[in-house]
């Protein structure tokens, strides 16, 4: 019963996406209802998968015959393996994607070509879900490319503006090179070890670690650092995320860089390479990139005048925190510090998806009302758009890490573990937060300043745009009320599931 | 699990700080010459920006104290750092690709030597 | 024996990356992307071609496998390359569509002109 529901995570969005052009013939109402229905059903399945994995442990699903050649459990087929970390990502993706689809109903109403828009947004969701549940390297590459191509197309969706086209070209061309590097790594691994199943590959790698395996790991790490927007390869992110429509920016910043970058990096580093390379070296490598990312991303956010660009740079900075957690988790593998750091990274991944999703949706509402995103022209929004400003206040406070909100708990775990691991890293993390605070204080001053004439006729957005923002705000506040409960019950077990490579392999071998 | 400091203390310190600030405010009001409630003394200057002052040539920005100058001290102190960062973000596609290739080479070198 | 196919594949990949870094025309960048992809496909497809016992392998047709004397080519890399080619076509089509749009907005295909977003 458990594993049979897993394919519906792919089937429902795939069916919904490609039947969208036909449903579109029935008119605008049918199209919107269909998009909401499909993403809602995916959310239901995703929550069910999370619940099941949380209660019953890792789920394994086999595509095709369970025992080819009549031999039992020969790992040649494609498998999907969902542990608690993957299930958490599934829940995050389906939830934020559902919010983004509802938001698009109002936000995208004045655009054309919306059947293609909804098709692409559901394909984007599909690609991310596939990455989160897959246990096969080539399958992972295919889903990564599905996700990437959908996001390239969505960044350039408003092709009547030069900004979208330029950002799309930059994102697409360099992103394709990064994908090619990942494919090259997969090809090298396949040539050396003759298998693509992640668990079996881990076994073979630990029996016989080779130079080829290390080269492949280097290709994976650099390709996935690019996809996650780590500095010094973060520049496409700052160009591409502001150029997309805001609902897409929320999905790109909240989900795509996490699933396509962080999740895949953690999965490959822990579940495949955990026992066959020096985790200390890999950990310090990731910590190095994390520190650069932390400082550069947050510092660049301070001097931006474009609201969405500021948020995009802030995303770069927050990715730095998550990478720092994962790096410490690798470098201090097996100790309690590493476990706390990893739990903090996973927690921050989830929190940042909610917070940055909310902030980009708010930026979209402001653009929708005023037609500008220049911070110098937005002063005094608090008078005319009070609900939006309140939501922004909550989101900004959460992303800085104010105590009663959810961002505090995850950032605290990362600060504490980095200070325990190496005090210098803790200091760097605090400096990054100082820059982050400066950036958001600038926006808040602007919002609470004296109203300019331009904002006087603005008003809070319509219901379909307001509700997703309110739901995300409530989620942030509620998650902030039980920080240590969530941390102990969900995030620490997820970190343990990610760390435990033996269990990952054993599930594949025994449970097949 | 929380070795140094329980996170709850943060909240306590925050609340105690609020109470202290309120008491200080009350004390200052009582022992001072009195607080102005009306007139030009109540004007707020954010980042030394006078909300009513009109600068010739900048009438379109008149009186909106925005976030433009809020972090002026920080931005000015770290001007060289920010300029360097801005200059690095060239916007050239080939530069982005070269950063990717350099990163790959660096990661590969580190992993081959110490991995 | 020297396996020339691997050397050719890596030459193609390096050539593609060099072209991507050195050229400034968008169409040439698309060609560079395609060359990188082709190199990886060549590498993948030649992984399946393993010469054992100095016998030339045959096509992987499982019908009548028991009576077959010579070894078979690995079927999995062929499936992988087929999938990867489809993905490559997708990427190329989208890249060309974007290039056409860039020409409409900027009036040139020079990538150095596409730098209004910076800082």
Helix content of chain C: 55-70%
**Residue runs with pLDDT of under 50 for 5 or more positions of chain C:** none
How many discrete domains of chain C? 1
Average per-residue pLDDT of chain B, rounded, comes to 77
Quick check: average pLDDT of chain C? 84
What's the main sheet of chain C like? none
CATH class of chain C: Mainly Alpha
**Class based on secondary structure composition and strand pairing of chain C:** mainly alpha
Largest sheet of chain B: none
What does the oligomeric state look like here?
heterotrimer
- Into which percentage range does the β-strand content of chain C fall? under 5%
Using only CA atoms, what is the Rg of chain B? Answer: 26 Å
Helix and strand element order of chain B = HHHH
The CATH topology of chain C is Helix Hairpins
What would you call the shape of chain C?
A: elongated
Question: Which range best describes the helical content of chain B: under 10%, 10-25%, 25-40%, 40-55%, 55-70% or over 70%?
Answer: 40-55%
What does it look like?
The complex is a heterotrimer of chains A (512), B (115) and C (119). Chain A is mostly helical and 512 residues long. Chain A has a domain at 278-481. Chain A has helices at 8-24, 28-56, 84-107, 114-133, 137-155, 162-193, 198-207, 211-228, 235-243, 246-272, 279-302, 307-331, 336-370, 381-384, 386-400, 406-421, 423-448, 463-481, 483-499, 501-511, and strands spanning 59-63, 78-82. Chain A has a two-stranded antiparallel ribbon. In chain A, α12 crosses α16 (406-421). The model of chain A has no long low-confidence stretch (mean pLDDT 88). With 115 residues, chain B is mostly helical. Chain B has 3 domains: 1-35; 43-70, no CATH class; 78-115. Helix content of chain B is 55%, strand content 0%. The radius of gyration of chain B is 26 Å and the shape is elongated. The two termini of chain B are 31 Å apart. The model of chain B has no long low-confidence stretch (mean pLDDT 77). Chain C is elongated, with a radius of gyration of 20 Å. Chain C is mainly alpha-helical. Chain C contains 3 helices and no strands. In chain C, α1 (4-22) runs antiparallel to α2 (26-47) and α2 packs antiparallel against α3. The chains are: A mainly alpha (512), B mainly alpha (115), C mainly alpha (119). Chains in contact: A-B, A-C, B-C. At the A-B interface, α6, α8, α9, α11 and α16 of A face α1, α3 and α4 of B.
């Amino acid at each position: 019963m458990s594993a049979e529901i897993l394919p519906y995570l792919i089937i429902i969005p795939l069916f919904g996406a490609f039947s969208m052009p036909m449903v579109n013939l029935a008119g605008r109402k049918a199209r919107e209802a269909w998009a909401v229905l499909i993403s809602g059903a995916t959310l239901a399945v995703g929550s069910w998968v999370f619940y099941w994995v949380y209660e019953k442990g890792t789920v394994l699903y086999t595509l095709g015959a369970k025992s080819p050649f009549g031999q039992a459990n020969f790992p040649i087929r494609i498998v999907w393996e969902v542990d608690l970390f993957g299930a958490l990502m599934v829940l995050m993706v389906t939830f934020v994607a559902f919010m983004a689809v509802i938001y698009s109903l109002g936000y995208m109403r004045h655009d054309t070509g919306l059947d293609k828009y909804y098709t692409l947004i559901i394909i984007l969701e599909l690609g991310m879900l596939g990455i989160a549940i897959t246990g096969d390297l080539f399958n992972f590459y295919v889903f990564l490319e599905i996700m990437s191509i959908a996001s390239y197309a969505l960044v350039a969706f408003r092709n009547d503006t030069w900004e979208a086209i330029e950002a799309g070209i930059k994102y697409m061309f360099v992103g394709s090179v990064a994908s090619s590097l990942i494919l090259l790594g997969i090809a090298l691994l396949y040539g050396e070890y003759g298998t693509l199943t992640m668990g079996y590959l881990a076994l073979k790698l630990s029996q016989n670690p080779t130079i080829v395996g290390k080269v492949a790991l280097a290709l994976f790490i650099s390709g996935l650092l690019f996809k996650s927007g780590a500095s010094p390869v973060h520049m496409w992110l700052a160009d591409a995320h502001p150029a997309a429509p805001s609902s897409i920016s929320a999905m790109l910043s909240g989900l795509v860089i996490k699933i396509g970058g962080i999740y895949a990096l953690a999965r490959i580093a822990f579940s495949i390479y955990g026992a066959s390379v020096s985790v200390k070296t890999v950990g310090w490598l990731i910590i190095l990139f994390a520190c650069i990312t932390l400082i550069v991303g947050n510092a660049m956010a301070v001097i931006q005048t474009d609201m969405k660009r500021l948020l995009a740079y802030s995303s770069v900075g927050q990715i730095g925190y998550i990478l720092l957690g994962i790096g410490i988790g690798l470098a201090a593998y097996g100790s309690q510090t590493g476990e706390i750091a990893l739990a903090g990274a996973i927690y921050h991944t989830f929190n940042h998806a909610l917070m940055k999703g909310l902030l980009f949706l708010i930026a979209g509402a402001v653009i929708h009302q005023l037609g500008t995103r220049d911070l110098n022209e937005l002063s005094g929004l608090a008078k005319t758009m009070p609900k939006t400003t309140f939501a922004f206040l909550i989101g900004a406070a959460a992303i800085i890490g104010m105590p009663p909100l959810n961002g505090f708990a995850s950032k605290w775990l990362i600060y504490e573990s980095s200070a325990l691991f190496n005090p210098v890293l803790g200091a760097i993390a605090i400096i990054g937060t100082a820059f982050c605070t400066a950036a958001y204080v600038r926006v808040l001053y602007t919002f609470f300043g004296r109203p300019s004439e331009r904002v006087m006729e603005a008003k809070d957005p319509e219901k379909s745009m307001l509700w997703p923002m309110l739901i995300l705000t409530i989620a942030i506040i509620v998650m902030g009320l039980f920080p240590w409960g969530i941390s102990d019950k969900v995030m620490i077990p997820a970190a343990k599931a990610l760390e435990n490579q033996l269990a990952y392999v054993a599930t594949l071998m025994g449970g097949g | 699990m929380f070795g140094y400091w329980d996170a709850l203390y943060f909240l306590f310190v925050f609340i105690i700080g609020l109470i202290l600030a309120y008491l200080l405010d009350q004390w200052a009001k009582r022992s001072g010459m009195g607080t102005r409630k009306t007139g030009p003394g109540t004007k707020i200057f954010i980042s030394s920006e006078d909300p009513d002052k009109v600068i010739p040539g900048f009438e379109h920005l008149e009186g909106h104290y925005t976030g433009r100058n809020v972090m002026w001290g920080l931005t000015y102190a770290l001007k060289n750092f920010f300029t360097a960062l801005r200059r690095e973000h060239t916007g050239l596609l080939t530069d982005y690709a070269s950063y990717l290739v350099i990163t790959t080479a660096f990661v590969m070198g580190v992993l081959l030597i110490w991995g | 024996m020297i396996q020339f196919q691997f050397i050719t594949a890596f030459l193609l990949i390096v050539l593609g990356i060099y072209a991507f870094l050195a050229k400034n025309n968008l169409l040439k960048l698309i060609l560079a992307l395609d060359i990188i992809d082709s190199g990886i496909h060549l590498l993948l497809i030649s992984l399946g071609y393993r010469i054992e016992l100095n016998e030339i392998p045959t096509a992987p047709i499982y019908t009548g496998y028991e009576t077959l004397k010579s070894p078979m080519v690995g079927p999995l890399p062929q499936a992988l390359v087929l999938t990867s080619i489809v993905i490559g076509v997708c990427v190329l089509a989208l890249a060309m569509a974007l290039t056409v749009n860039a020409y409409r907005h900027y009036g040139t295909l020079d990538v150095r002109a596409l730098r209004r977003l910076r800082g």
